[in-house]
Amino acid sequence: MKPSNKDLIKYRVDRAFETLEEANILAQYNHWDTVANRLYYSCFYAVSALFYKFNLTAKTHSSFKSQFHKNFIKNGVFDLTIYGEIIQRSI
Fold first, then answer.
1. Residues 6+ away with beta carbon under 8 Å from 46
2. For residue 75, what is the DSSP state?
3. Are 52 and 60 in contact (CB under 8 A)?
4. Mean pLDDT in the chain?
5. Measuring CA to CA, how many Å separate 48 from each of 59, 79, 83?
6. For the whole prediction, is pTM greater than 0.70?
7. DSSP-assigned letters across all residues of 46-74
8. From CA 21, how far away is CA 62, in angstroms rounded?
9. pLDDT-based confidence at residue 89 (cuts at 50, 70, 90)
């Protein structure tokens, strides 16, 4: 049985929070390279949940970034004045 979009969204959001928690734990021990990795994947999982919600697809990480920019930054859903430099640098 194929999971529903709602189930996939929940799974990705849960993974995003779980991975964020991993980053917090690793930060307590100054494992900064791994913290950066976990933060990246936390964002990746959150964006993939957003993609499921809006029926968007991407096959690679770079296409995820491009599609996110095209569908959410360019049209003003996410305001760069608020999310700023971090998003800008990742594009």
1. 12, 13, 16
2. T
3. no
4. 88
5. 11, 19, 18
6. yes
7. HHHHHHHHTT---SSHHHHHHHHIIIIIT
8. 25
9. low
Q: How far apart are the first and last CA of the chain?
A: 36
Q: Domain map of the chain by residue range?
A: 1-54, 56-91
Q: What is the three-class DSSP state of 23?
A: helix
For residue 73, the model assigns a pLDDT of: 84
Tokens 């964020």, residue located: 20
- Are 37 and 22 in contact, with CB atoms under 8 Å apart? no
The percentage of the chain sitting over the pLDDT mark of 70, rounded to a whole number, equals 88
**How far apart, in Å, are the Cα atoms of 79 and each of 40, 44, 45, 55, 86?**
20, 18, 20, 21, 12
**CB 42 within 8 Å of CB 23:** yes
